[in-house]
Design a protein that fits this description.
With about 400 residues, the protein is α+β, with helices and mostly antiparallel strands. It has two domains: about 280 residues, Creatine Kinase, Chain A, domain 2, CATH 3.30.590; about 110 residues, no CATH class. It is about 25% helix and about 25% strand. It contains ten helices and 22 strands. The chain is elongated.
Length: about 400
């Protein structure tokens, strides 16, 4: 059986090959008696179908479209990737506030303390170990000033499949906007500020590179903009000058993607009109909590559906891929519908509108020929398959702590 490949397409917000920025926020969950381990709480929160992500036993896709999981003892909220277009940084910050408010409703008797922020930028030019190290020696101190507070440890730079992940302290509002804008521009840029003499270390818990607050010699968070950094080419430069140098490169990159008004939170942070996190809390209010309408499609993906003659349920859900089980009422005939990226949006719209009822019913009745969705290569295009292999074989390989790729290739 040749897999069916329906005509698909979706709006620019969800295009699978579009430039996008992902945001994850981690929170310590605290009771009156002290911190709690969120791994011991999450499965009791009635969040829906578990284990839709084959690599994360704690992950749940929320009705809001975000993913709630546990990263060690902390609660982690991951937003769907936000497409880069005018207003994206304000939308991302407002969305993060809305998801925090939703999480607070799940644990009303507990407190959430912001723990960390992870920003991921889609990239095919900065997601190798060598390119990540290069980022750590050039752009890192500028981003560290934009994302880390006075008590932060440092920055984690992680090459991931099709993206670069940058992990720092918990920021929200305009400070989150500034950090997201700089992350986008710096990862996208093919030009870099002066390389610095930097002591970088392998990540302790996950593959990547850790840049300590003292990786450049002096304590970056103690002296902030005044910190003296040493160039690889010789001589010194202040952290403020390095920030301004990075900003000049980022500004040119961002102006090709966004309107000038979009850059104000970052421009104000660089110029000193707005405080850096290590200088104190941002006194300017951030955007009001608001969830973008397109994000709800990710929540709709995991809702079970009943159509004439068959049921549909999601059996795998990541940002890169959705797989749906299509099964007859008597449970004797089944298919698996595979949709990479955001192509699931049109599939669900056509499914809910009844356009696929006849086609899927006919396919369920056809004789079996044994075609199985069992490799990463088979997930690159939409298709219908008769059986499903190991779900872990359908996701992009990650790097183990030693640097080796683990998973399908």
């Amino acid at each position: 059986m040749r897999p069916t490949r329906p005509r698909l397409g979706s709006g620019p917000e969800l295009s699978s090959d579009a430039l996008s920025v992902g945001c994850e926020h981690e929170y310590r969950v605290v009771s009156p008696d002290g911190p709690l381990d969120f791994r011991e709480l999450i499965h009791g929160l009635a969040l829906g179908t578990p284990r839709l992500d084959p690599l994360d036993p704690y992950a749940y896709r929320a009705p809001t479209g975000s993913v709630l999981t546990a990263d060690a003892a902390e609660a982690e909220l991951a937003l769907p990737p936000t497409a880069v277009e005018d207003g994206f940084s304000a939308s991302l910050a407002a969305h993060a506030e809305a998801e925090r408010a939703w999480l607070e409703t799940l644990v009303p008797d507990l407190e959430l303390h912001g723990h960390s922020t992870h920003l991921s930028v889609t990239s095919e030019v900065a997601n190798t170990p060598e390119q990540a190290q290069d980022y750590a020696r050039s752009f890192a101190p500028a981003l560290m000033l934009l994302i880390d507070g006075p008590d932060s440890l440092g920055l984690l730079v992680r090459p991931r499949p099709h993206r670069l992940e940058l992990g720092g302290d918990y920021v929200r509002g305009r400070q989150l906007q500034a950090a997201a804008l700089f992350a986008l521009g710096s990862v996208s840029s093919r030009l870099k500020p002066p390389r610095l003499i930097t002591r970088i270390e392998p990540g302790a818990l996950r593959y990547g590179w850790y840049v300590d607050r003292r990786a450049f010699g002096p304590d970056l968070y103690a002296t902030g903009r005044r910190t003296l950094l040493t160039r690889e080419s010789g001589g010194t430069i202040t952290a403020q000058e390095q920030l301004e140098s990075g900003w000049e490169l980022v500004r040119d990159e961002l102006r090709t993607l966004l309107g000038a008004d979009e850059l104000a939170p970052l421009e104000n942070a660089v110029s000193g009109k707005a405080l850096l996190p290590c200088e104190g809390a941002d006194p300017l209010p951030g955007p009001e909590p608001r969830r973008p309408g397109w994000a709800l499609a990710y929540g709709e993906a995991v809702r079970e559906r009943r159509r004439p003659g068959f049921d549909v349920a999601c059996v795998l859900a990541t940002w890169e891929l959705h797989v749906f089980l299509v099964i007859s009422f008597d449970r004797t005939q089944r298919l698996f519908a595979c949709y990479p990226g955001s192509s699931f949006v049109e599939f669900l719209a056509r499914l809910d509108g009844g356009e696929l009822d006849a086609e899927l019913s006919d396919r369920l009745r056809r004789p079996r020929s044994g075609e199985s969705l069992d490799s990463l290569a088979k997930t690159r295009s939409p298709g219908l398959w008769e059986s499903l292999g190991e779900r872990s074989s359908l996701v992009s390989p990650e790097r183990a702590i030693g640097g080796d790729l683990v998973g399908p290739s």
